[in-house]
Amino acid sequence: MSTSAASSSPPVQSSHQKGTNKPIDKKAKDTGSAHPLELDPRPEYFEHRIRIFDKLKTEHDEWVKNQPRQEIAITLPDGSQRKGTSWETSPMDIAKEISPSFADRVVIAKVDGELWDLERPLEASCSLELLDFEHPEGKRVFWHSSAHVLGEAAERHYGCHLCIGPPTEDGFFYEMAIQDRPVVNSDYPALEKVADLAIKEKQKFERLFVPKETLLEMFGYNKYKKYIIETKIPDGTSTTVYRCGPMVDLCVGPHIPHTGKIKAFMITKNSASYFLGDANNDSLQRVYGISFPDKKQLVEYRKFLEEAAKRDHRKIGKEQELFFFNDLSPGSCFFLPHGTRIYNTLLELIRSEYFKRGYQEVISPNMFSSKPWETSGHWQNYRESMFTLDVEKEQWALKPMNCPGHCLIFDSRDRSYRELPIRMAEFAVLHRNEASGALTGLTRIEQEFAALFQFMQDIYGLFGFEYHLELSTRPENYLGTIETWDAAEDQLKKALDTVTSKTVSRNLRFARFSEYLCNG
Hints:
Blueprint: H1 44-65, E1 71-75, E2 81-85, H2 91-98, H3 100-105, E3 106-111, E4 114-116, E5 126-132, H4 136-158, E6 161-162, E7 167-168, E8 171-177, H5 188-200, E9 206-211, H6 212-218, H7 223-232, E10 238-244, E11 247-250, E12 264-274, E13 283-292, H8 295-310, H9 313-319, E14 323-325, E15 333-335, H10 337-356, E16 360-361, E17 367-369, H11 370-376, H12 378-381, E18 388-391, E19 394-398, H13 403-410, E20 424-425, H14 446-462, H15 482-503
Parallel strand pairs: 1-5, 16-20
Antiparallel strand pairs: 1-2, 3-4, 3-5, 6-8, 7-8, 8-13, 9-10, 10-11, 12-13, 14-15, 17-19, 18-19
Helix pairs in contact: 4-5, 14-15
């Protein structure tokens, strides 16, 4: 077996698939697609992956069989205990003891605080939680498993090379490289049909630890998976893969017990993307979907989409001559006279609220040289998220946030500690070359954060808006020390807990995501 050395750069534009299996002439029935439902024969990598997986699975099962058995105590959230046997009793066994209907509803377990596959045997005495789809972590696992089903459907329909397929806040997506055709709306029924076939088969999700060198062999046909393995998995270590049906994917899991848990599956949209979000890398196809454990939930979701379409701000803005958008300035709004009047009224409202709370309004330039961004660290770490330009052989940038400019205002004269806290506010146009904000220095004290949260609550509450607060945590390329970040995050948590406890009675909803989301 040969392995590739770690690559210093991700894959760039090139043909990724040679000798693709030709599809049979039979067209996909009842899908409206001009292409076959599935490739026949299937891509060679199906058999290649399964052969390696089955060999390792046999070895793993034999290893589990030889582990010593002993009685273990399993503590449930209510404090009650169940008896079990190590390496035999699974969370699903406990769920079935509680109630067959409960076991049917549960999608994932939590063992000593760690998410755990329902069919995976317990290894020692532990605490156990059983989560259904309504639990945020249960929903995330359910949609993650559904992404694998989408990946399987895409491989069977397109013969594509998969990249990444995570859950999202409202479903899931999978990115893929397809050699000869783009994804189009007319493909959706075919993808849903193949996904339904996988769901009806109740394919088990099987977990397996695989060494890095074997992973490189297993996914040697796929340069995207290879790059992830080479750059993310240290030499001499292992990580997990999951199999469902013919699909074997690099994945930390966990997953639902089998695909049959998915009762409703729908493709929602598709778009173009770049591998790892870098425009210098391969252009990929991204397909989005959503799924539910009950068909009624999909019916409700479709109704929600219909109502949302009626309330689409782009539609309303154009119909009422408030504002519109144009591709010549993507993501930017053109305010018409009626919309401008509303905009200015809101501006005056916020200005008066700033005044009540001790803020002083300032105005700073829209464009700066690279120097303040170099001082703040943005230039070194977040430059790709800024709009930069050359001015007289120097690098400049449109400001993506106000804080460096406000720091320059603060530094414009000597200050006394008696002036603190200094609260600055600015109505400025900000420019960010990204989908979400980047995390900046968290230096304000806990009380200031609580006051800001209260400010948001007052303004949004005035208009009857519901909103979510997301807890920001340090990104991989953070500035400063871990100790500083831990202290700052702790202040944020305390402030968030305070404002959450105060607003429960007002029926405002808050969500906290500390591990997956938020860089700003």
